[in-house]
Amino acid sequence: MRGASLNIIVFLVVLALAAGGVYLFRDTLLRNAKVTGMTLARNYAAEERSNLAVYETLLAFGTASMEKRLQDEDLEDTVRWMRIYFERLQTVLGGNVVVPYIVLDGKIIDMASQLQEKMPDFTPEERDWFKMAQKTPGVPVFSDVYEDAVTGKPVVTIAQKCRTANAILAFDIFPHYFRFNFLPQNLQSHESFFLCDNNGMILYTQTGLNVPDNVLQDYAFNLIKKIQNNELEKYDSYIIDLDGNKRAIYYNMMYNGWYSIITIPHYSILKEYNTILIFLILSVCIFLAVLAILSWRSGRVNRLMKRTNEVVRVLGNSYYALYRVNFENDAYEMIKGSGYVRERLSQSGKYSELMQVMLEVIEPDAREEYRQNFSCESIRTLVSRKVRDFGGDFRRLFGEEYRWVSVRVLFDESLTPEEVVLCFREVEQEKLWQLQERKLLEDTLETARRSEKARQSFFANMSHDMRTPLNAIIGMSELARQTLDNKEKLAGYIDKIHYSSFQLKNLIDDILDLSRMAEGRLDLNNQKMDLRQCVQDCLDAYRVQAEMEHKSLQASMELENAWVMADPVRIGQLLNNLLSNAFKFTSADDAVSIAVTQIRNTGKYKFVVSDTGIGMSPEFLPHLFEPYTRENRFGSKNVAGTGLGMSITKNLVEQMNGEISVESCVGRGSTFTIVLPFVGVEPVHAEEKKEKKDAPDREALRGKRILLAEDNMVNMELAVEIFSMHGIEVVQAWNGAEAVEQFAASEPFFFHFILMDMQMPELDGCGAARQIRAMNRPDAKSVPIIAVTANAFAEDIVATTAAGMDAHVAKPIDFSLLLNILEKFIKNR
Fold it and tell me: By C-alpha distance, which of 656, 682, 671, 694 is closest to 568?
């Protein structure tokens, strides 16, 4: 019975080994195929990279030459030279392979394809490649594939902006001119190759799949989606192709975000698999038959081998030393020993001698403890208590270094009653991991505590700071309701409600700014600006405050070039935060000053805001730029504010690649210094400034009709009232779906504008805009659609533009700005 059971076990083991061998064979085929496929994908990517390097080199040469000539020559000479360069470019690359053109100060200078004549409304500023090139001067950038408006063919744009001039050189490259030197042995007929951009648009393909182009494009979209979702990382991953076959996917992502993709059918990879599988099955059957015969004829296993196998089966090969110890006779038998012990002891002997040799390499601090716990007397006690597994960890000398070792005393009834197995295993990595895990757990716990404390502090501060203006709004609203007949008091209450509302709005703006800064999503709208005028505009608001509070406000500016490329809103925000703090923490007869200087030959500007107020202690200065930090001294307890201003200021300065420092002394005041790098520009002519400042003519809006999509009743009432005051007829829609229905039911060109809230039930603003743009009517593509967004995040603006909207305004709506936008659309028609 025992022999039959052994034979069954052997049979099952051999069967498992056969199944494992088949699996390993298939696994090996797939792994090798992945290595080959990934190599092919890299080779084709490298070939395309070398092709693109030609365009990049020509582009870099053209950009550098154009930049030099724009500095040294006039525009006509530069254009004449670039015309010659474009002609030579066409000669080198061949006609119509690329379409080159220049964008100089936002205007197209096209000398090859008459782009301006064919597309008079072409605005490069709206192109993704233009925006990317603006952000990375001197670096070539690639667009994704898009449809060329002139030829209707797929096109990719590579562009590079000059470092010192506002000029961009761009090449439109048509992917159907791409060529690869495929060799028959590299790509078989049943294999496919795709070159796609980051969004999955096909740039080039060679495939045996006989399907329409649109179906093949959807197939490529699906491939890119799975690749970007890391669904095809494993060597045995696959997809079902358009013919219903399994295909392995191998790919390589290029430096510009394009993908080189190879697809190979599984039947091609595993074509020898079935034949070898049958062969293996037959071989296993023969082997099992032979094994059965040998098992039937085999006798008893040698006792010594059985004893050795018992120990090996219990301990395995993970132990570097194994000893069979007889604690009654003080004897050991070495099953497996370390080199150090084998050099000094025989295969068997007295356990006390083995103990002495082991103590020589155990760390000194653990030797006595080891002697006590693993002596014959201690082992005897463990066996008598039926302790089957006992041990611990200590450090042992290996060569010249100590490493962690685990020692175990194992007792089992299969051994003789007076014997145990003593085994040693190196656990250096495991011990280090345990120590690291413990440290990590301790650090995680401490981090969680700090995070919870910070979260509680954040919400406590937020609750207080938001409830303060909110309480004023609610209280003053109730007082206003009770004093409707007293116009003077009513006007005062409304003024306080208006002030508290803006205080609450500023708090929310600060929180949003802080959040965007933490995520790196704060956008800077750099434009030509007069730095001197920006500072003066900011100071105007504080001159009145200084006079009312009996404080001195001094300003000095030493600027050789006041016109720079910068974000005037963010500059004003920086100065407002510093000046506001200066006025908060000064008393009557104190002085506040601001000095703006241009640092010579550096392209940097220094802003210094000083005050003679209460100052700050040295202990508080390191925490000045942390959110919600405020020095709790008697002089500042009643100062209003969110505690976010200085944190936002520091983040803004860092995002502008600037520096901020502060010096302060208690009772003497504080001095903040900001250094920002700006690029100098030519001043804007007075006529342009006058044109920008001219008051709008609201009469142009009278009699116009607007479709207003808004789901909030109060917002709807407010907008209708404002529009009606300016003679604009309003048609109301309470959600996106209703807005689409209203537009579809109207006569063509009935509506002059559409104002679309982004967040609405049933259908949001983007969805409604897409449906309107897709309608088959003459005004569907041209009617201006203005988005109303809850915030002005860059991703919201991109989403509205992608949905076909023409402009956007942020809540709370600045109706003066909105009316200006409507007038602009009227004038541009």
Answer: 656
Q: Do the Cβ atoms of 157 and 143 come closer than 8 Å?
A: yes
- Determine the 3-state secondary structure of 680 from DSSP: strand
Count the Cβ atoms, other than its own, within 10 Å of residue 351: 21
Which pTM value belongs to this model? Answer: 0.41
pLDDT tens, residue by residue, 545-560: 888 889 999 999 999 8
Q: Considering the chain, what is the average pLDDT of its residues?
A: 82
How far apart are the C-alpha atoms of 754 and 772, rounded to whole Å?
Answer: 10
Q: What is the domain extent for residue 228?
A: 192-269
Identify whether residues 706 and 681 lie together within a single domain: no
Q: Where are the alpha helices (DSSP H) in 597-746?
A: 645-655, 686-693, 713-725, 736-745
The domain that contains 91 carries what CATH number? 3.30.450.20
Q: How far is CA 794 from CA 306, 387, 523, 525, in A?
A: 75, 68, 7, 11
Contact 710, 734 (CB under 8 A): yes
Could you say which DSSP state residue 667 is in? T
Instruction: Please say which residue of 457, 492, 518 terminates a domain.
Output: 518
> Which domain-ending residue is among 399, 426, 453?
426
Reduced to 3 states (helix: H, G, I; strand: E, B; else coil), residue 190 is: coil
In order of 190, 241, 259, 372, 682, the CA distances from 208 in angstroms are 6, 11, 19, 77, 59
pLDDT by residue (tens digit) across 222-266?
Answer: 998 989 898 888 888 889 888 888 889 999 988 888 899 999 888
Asked if the peptide bond before residue 812 counts as cis, ω within 30 degrees of 0, the response is: yes
Asked whether residue 740 is domain-assigned, the answer is yes
CATH number where 396 lies: 3.30.450
Shared-domain flag, residues 450 and 372: no
DSSP H helix total and E strand total for the chain: 23, 30
Residues 87 and 128 reside in one and the same domain: yes
Give, in degrees to the nearest 5, the angle at Cα 731 between 729 and 736. 145
